[in-house]
């Protein structure tokens, strides 16, 4: 049974589970479906009986993505429709720690790097650039240009330091090297816009993309001419894709078709299950890193849901060693 | 809005042919057009007819007074649909050259057609867009809007009573620039070469010749029987049922030989300009609720229109501004439109507008334009609507079309029509 948090008049765009606190979730939400109006950043705790609001902040434009700090359990960063990134602290109730406004259009993606030895933020914007920032958001360290369309997603590789992937409206998946500030790979992954990408937590060469063409494609970066897997099933554009932290072959996708789907690449028929508990576009999705098989999602129907899909618990494949923060990555 | 457009784009992708998208695609199509839903207040076109377009001063209609032309088309339209003229709410006539835009002439034509005195009439003059303007001026109930022009009998000569002070105000002065010079201005300022203009003109002639030979205009033309005075002064009776301006034998070499018509080293010639012509057209229009109550069919729906102002010295760029304005009002883009009827006042401005808006050439004037058919000033707008809707109907599926023209003294007008499907 899902635990539900309702945010009236705020439509969820992104959720992320805290890397430190197992029952804590952040959600970036916007007024008027993000088309106009302001935004709200919500910090929620799952309780025995439901979901409680810990903290919330208002922002003058819509908020489209959120990422928790990997160094400090109180800190998070959000990306806004006004092109700004804001650093928030759950100890500070009213105002952001810092606001950085460099992007000239909507910031649609923020991610905090997880590899040891570096503490960086990456942002992706509709202004077609990605920027890398120090954790204090003082100013951007690098700006990466190359995409010929809006950027929808920027995700750090969990394996390779200084490396992130980006998904864009130009139909390409790009892999970037921050130190040399170049694009190492540009894969024309889809003929339509790519709205999301994510890295496999167990294989540093595997990346998944979700596109407006309604397919989820898995790519091996060593051989980019065709995808390793192409999963059909969603009826509308895919808004977000996420690899499971507990399994090499399990991933989830959420879509404008109101559903969340779970896939297992090791099976002949990869679709495990379709969860239809939303009544609007599902935009945000994350796996809980601490609690195996728990998933959080958020939707334009003004709800955030925390649940454990049966298809994941029932999966019979051998579980990989659970990924935790203590293992060395680099 | 940018964000809304981006997200809507996620729902209507261009590429994916696999998966069962048929149902969704139709859904997306009507979501993209803000005007997808029919309302009883829609302005709809029921029917339209036009006379053949004759060459001014030398053609078969040169001795025909405009009231005769007007009367012919007004009668034809009502007879075709079987509507008695006393059901009309108003009549609006577009005209440019007659004194007072032909207000008296229009009332005369009215009675020549046997319309009852209870039906009023008025005229409108927005230069070349008068025809379209008459349609846009639609009042409630039923109206016939028509346009007529006899460029044989009246020339663009007398500008009226103007102050001498106008020479001190640049844009006021620019209103007097001859149209041919504005064409040269556009060609020069926007780099439209003589070759491009001639190629466009050739294309117009070829399309018109083909349309004529395929009989595409047969349905819309009302043959007019009229008097004609030949070179010896003898009076004859002739029946005019074919557009006279079309020259099927046009070649690029032939066009290239023509001398510039307006400036010694210009690029605008008689071959790549619209012709001076006589003609009339009439459209029966009304609010959907009234049309349906009378049991009349809907040929086309006016979805949006826009009239914009541009500098008088490059008046030809009008459609490049008016078309996006009208499309935006309709919630559509160039890609949604199947046919554009863009008046070819001059190849220079027509080419500029088509290229500026990125319109694929195959969508532009598929049955030829004013360069081949002629441009009877006040008549053109209605002629374009008639030809547009007939072409969309011939293609046999729901589609959108745009009618647009530039306007002397610096304006542009555009209207978006929907053919609802067979």
Automatic annotation (TrEMBL), chain A:
The keyword Transport applies. WD repeats lie at residues 72-98, 100-143, 144-180, 187-223, 231-273. GO terms for cellular component: cytosol; peroxisomal matrix. The keyword Protease does not apply. Keywords: Cytoplasm, Peroxisome, Protein transport, Repeat, Transport, WD repeat. It is found in: Cytoplasm, Cytosol; Peroxisome matrix. SUPFAM superfamilies: WD40 repeat-like (SSF50978). One of its GO terms (molecular function) is peroxisome matrix targeting signal-2 binding. InterPro entries: PEX7, WD40/YVTN_repeat-like_dom_sf, WD40_PAC1, WD40_repeat_CS, WD40_repeat_dom_sf, WD40_rpt. PROSITE patterns: WD_REPEATS_1, WD_REPEATS_2, WD_REPEATS_REGION. SMART domains: WD40. It comes from the Eukaryota. One of its GO terms (biological process) is protein import into peroxisome matrix. Its main location: cytoplasm. Belongs to the WD repeat peroxin-7 family. This is Peroxin-7.
TrEMBL record, chain B:
It holds the Pfam family Thiolase_N. It catalyses: 3-oxo-(6Z,9Z,12Z,15Z,18Z,21Z)-tetracosahexaenoyl-CoA + CoA = (4Z,7Z,10Z,13Z,16Z,19Z)-docosahexaenoyl-CoA + acetyl-CoA; 3-oxohexadecanedioyl-CoA + CoA = tetradecanedioyl-CoA + acetyl-CoA; 2 acetyl-CoA = acetoacetyl-CoA + CoA; tetradecanoyl-CoA + acetyl-CoA = 3-oxohexadecanoyl-CoA + CoA. It is found in: Peroxisome. Pathway: Lipid metabolism; peroxisomal fatty acid beta-oxidation. One of its GO terms (molecular function) is acetyl-CoA C-myristoyltransferase activity. Residues 298-418 form the Thiolase C-terminal domain. Residues 43-288 form the Thiolase N-terminal domain. Keywords: Acyltransferase, Fatty acid metabolism, Lipid metabolism, Peroxisome, Transferase, Transit peptide. Signal peptide: none annotated. It comes from the Eukaryota. GO terms for biological process: fatty acid beta-oxidation; phenylacetate catabolic process. GO terms for cellular component: peroxisome. The active site is at residues 128, 375, 406. InterPro entries: Thiolase (IPR002155), Thiolase-like (IPR016039), Thiolase-like_sf_Thiolase (IPR050215), Thiolase_AS (IPR020610), Thiolase_C (IPR020617), Thiolase_CS (IPR020613), Thiolase_N (IPR020616). Its main location: other. Belongs to the thiolase-like superfamily. Thiolase family. This is Acetyl-CoA acyltransferase 1.
């Amino acid at each position: 049974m899902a635990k539900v948090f309702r945010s009236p008049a705020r439509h969820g765009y992104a959720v992320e589970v805290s890397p430190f606190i197992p029952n804590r979730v952040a959600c970036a939400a916007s007024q008027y479906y993000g088309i106009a109006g302001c935004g709200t950043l919500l910090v929620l705790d799952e309780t025995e009986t439901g979901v409680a609001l810990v903290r919330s902040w208002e922002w003058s434009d819509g908020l489209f993505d959120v990422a928790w700090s990997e160094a400090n359990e109180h800190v998070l960063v959000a990306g806004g429709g006004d092109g700004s990134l804001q650093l928030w602290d759950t100890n500070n109730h009213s105002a952001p720690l810092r606001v950085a406004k460099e992007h000239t259009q909507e910031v649609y993606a923020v991610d905090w790097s997880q590899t040891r030895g570096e503490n960086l933020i990456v942002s992706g914007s509709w202004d077609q650039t990605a920027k890398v920032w120090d954790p204090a958001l003082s100013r951007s360290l690098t700006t990466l240009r190359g995409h010929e369309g809006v950027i929808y997603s920027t995700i750090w590789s969990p394996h390779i330091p200084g490396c992130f992937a980006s998904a864009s409206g130009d139909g390409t998946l790009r892999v970037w090297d921050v130190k040399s500030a170049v694009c190492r790979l540009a894969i024309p992954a889809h003929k339509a816009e790519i709205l999301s990408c994510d890295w496999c937590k167990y294989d540093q060469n595997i990346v998944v993309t979700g596109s407006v063409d309604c397919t989820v494609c898995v790519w091996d970066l060593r051989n980019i001419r065709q995808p390793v897997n192409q999963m059909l099933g969603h009826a509308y554009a895919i808004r977000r894709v996420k690899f499971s932290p507990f399994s090499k072959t399990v991933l989830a996708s959420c879509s404008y078709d109101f559903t969340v789907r779970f896939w297992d690449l090791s099976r002949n028929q990869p679709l495990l299950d379709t969860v239809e508990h939303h009544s609007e576009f599902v935009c945000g999705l994350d796996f809980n890193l601490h609690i195996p098989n728990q998933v959080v999602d958020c939707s334009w129907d003004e709800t955030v849901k925390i649940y454990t899909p049966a298809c994941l618990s029932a999966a019979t494949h051998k579980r990989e060693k659970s990924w935790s923060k203590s293992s060395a990555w680099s | 809005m940018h964000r809304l457009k981006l997200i809507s784009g996620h729902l209507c992708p261009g590429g994916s042919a696999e998966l069962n998208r048929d149902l969704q695609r139709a859904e997306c199509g009507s979501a993209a057009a803000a005007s997808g839903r029919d309302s009883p207040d829609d302005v709809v076109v029921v029917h339209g007819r036009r006379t053949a377009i004759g060459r001014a001063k030398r053609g078969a209609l040169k001795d025909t007074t405009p009231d005769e032309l007007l009367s012919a088309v007004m009668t034809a339209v009502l007879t075709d649909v079987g509507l008695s003229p006393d059901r009309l709410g108003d009549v609006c006539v577009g005209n440019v050259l007659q004194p007072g835009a032909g207000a008296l002439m229009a009332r005369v034509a009215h009675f020549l057609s046997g319309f009852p005195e209870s039906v009023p009439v008025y005229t409108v003059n927005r230069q070349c867009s008068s025809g379209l303007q008459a349609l846009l001026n639609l009042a409630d109930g039923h109206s016939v809007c028509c346009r007529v022009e006899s460029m044989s009998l009246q020339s663009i000569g007398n500008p009226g009573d103007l102050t001498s002070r106008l020479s001190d105000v640049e844009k006021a002065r620019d209103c007097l620039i001859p149209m041919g010079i504005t064409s040269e201005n556009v060609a020069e300022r926007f780099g439209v070469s003589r070759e491009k203009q001639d190629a466009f003109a050739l294309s117009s002639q070829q399309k018109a010749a083909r349309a004529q030979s395929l009989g595409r205009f047969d349905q819309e033309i009302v043959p007019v029987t009229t008097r004609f005075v030949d070179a010896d002064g003898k009076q004859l009776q002739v029946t005019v049922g074919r557009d006279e301006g079309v020259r099927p034998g046009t070649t690029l070499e032939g066009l290239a030989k023509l001398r510039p018509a307006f400036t010694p080293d210009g690029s605008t010639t008689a071959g790549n300009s619209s012709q001076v012509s006589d003609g009339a057209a009439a459209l029966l229009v009304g609010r959907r609720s009234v049309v349906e109550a009378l049991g009349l069919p809907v040929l086309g729906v006016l979805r949006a229109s826009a009239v914009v102002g541009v500098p008088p010295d490059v008046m030809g760029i009008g459609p490049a501004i008016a078309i996006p304005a009208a499309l935006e009002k309709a919630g559509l883009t160039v890609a949604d439109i199947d046919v554009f009827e863009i008046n070819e006042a001059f190849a220079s401005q027509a080419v500029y507008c088509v290229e500026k808006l990125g319109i694929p050439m195959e969508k532009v004037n598929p049955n030829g334009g004013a360069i081949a058919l002629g441009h009877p000033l006040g008549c053109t707008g209605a002629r374009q609507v008639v030809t547009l809707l007939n072409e969309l109907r011939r293609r046999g599926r729901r589609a959108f079309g745009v009618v647009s023209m530039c306007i002397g003294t610096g304006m542009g007008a555009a209207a978006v029509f929907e053919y609802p499907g067979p």
